[in-house]
Amino acid sequence: MANIVRHGKGWMARVYYKDSTGKRKSKAKGGFKTKGEAKGYAINLEKELLDGGSLNDCDTPLPEYFWEWYETFKEPKISARTKKSYEYTYNVLKNHFNNKALSAITRTTYQTFLTKYGKTHAKETVQKVNVHVRACVKNALYDKLIPRDFTEQTSVVFDKDRTQQIEYLSIVQMKNLVAYVSNSLNPHFTSKYMILLAVYTGMRLGELQGLQWRDINFNFKTVSVRRAWSDVEDDFKETKNKSSVRTIRVNNDILNYFYALKQSVSPESSKQQVFLNQYGTVPTSNAVNKTLRESLKKINVEKRGFHFHSLRHTHVAYLLANQIDLYAISKRLGHSDIGTTSRVYSYLIDEYKAKTDTEIEHALSQITISDDDSQKANSKTVCSTLMIKP
């Protein structure tokens, strides 16, 4: 039910409704120049209620609602590093939406935000913010705080110049890196051991940092990923997802390096983390990336966007070049499904692409029938005809 009354020099509309608990509430808005405008506003609100919408909390600003949603549903179960990404999104929303009510945001409003924000940010950054907002909005929709999802049918815009392409090493570069690192190993400084195992397994940095000696089975030639490590909290944490818990098959080459490393540590340390250095700590992301950059410089490789995670890309590219099945690669990486692997690693390393192009060209050449093939086909036709009885 709605009341339309005089309010100062204009008109005000007040709509009464019951919230999800059955409590009677009202929502009012004034400043309408005519009674008809106020009545139209009230009719629209009542229509939203009849369509299953809710007026509860509709006036909550988007940044405020996002933070409440984050603290309730996300913060208790995510890592310290992931928390920072949500905090970043919150600050972005504060800067762009300020006190804009959740119910006042339309698809046009949100697309305008994506376009403006994306013009000065990389693709990955914009996508991450968009993913956070979309999840938050779906929660509001589920609780009937808004009548529709304003993030639907919107598209991410980004600055191509700020968006770095995935970097990886060619086979020759990868072999040169392994040769240099393996010939300069020092058990007191374990970053190079981490580089080697990343090349051979494609493990994430946090997974390597959390690796313990009991996770390496020298008899079965496997490395088991059971946990990860947080640089921020300086402690163990769960793996990225359930599928990240996995067992990876390796070969004797990499095992020999780690067998020698294990012999150099004390019996007490043999039960601890594999990559503890002489200071009793595990190399941080900054430390291992510094060692990687220095190693690449030694083999005359210059790749601006190459970092430790790029070794994971290199591992995948090498397996693809050797025609390893994509499903097997997906399981080895700990991806939840093969679609993730296919999407992220749709690129091919130079050697693999050249080989694939050659194979495609050869296959296409088989489509055209050669003169010899034509003569053989005609010969078979003649023979078949002669064998037909009258």
UniProtKB/TrEMBL annotation:
Pfam families: Arm-DNA-bind_4, Phage_integrase
Organism domain of life: Bacteria
UniProt xrefs under PROSITE patterns: CB (PS51900), TYR_RECOMBINASE (PS51898)
Keywords recorded for this protein, A-Z: DNA recombination, DNA-binding
InterPro entries: AP2-like_int_N, CB, DNA_brk_join_enz, Integrase-like_cat_sf, Integrase_catalytic, Integrase_recombinase_N, Tyrosine_recombinase_XerCD
Domain Core-binding (CB): 57-141
Domain Tyr recombinase, residue spans: 164-358
Family of the protein in this entry: Belongs to the 'phage' integrase family.
Originating species: Loigolactobacillus jiayinensis
UniProt protein name: Tyrosine-type recombinase/integrase
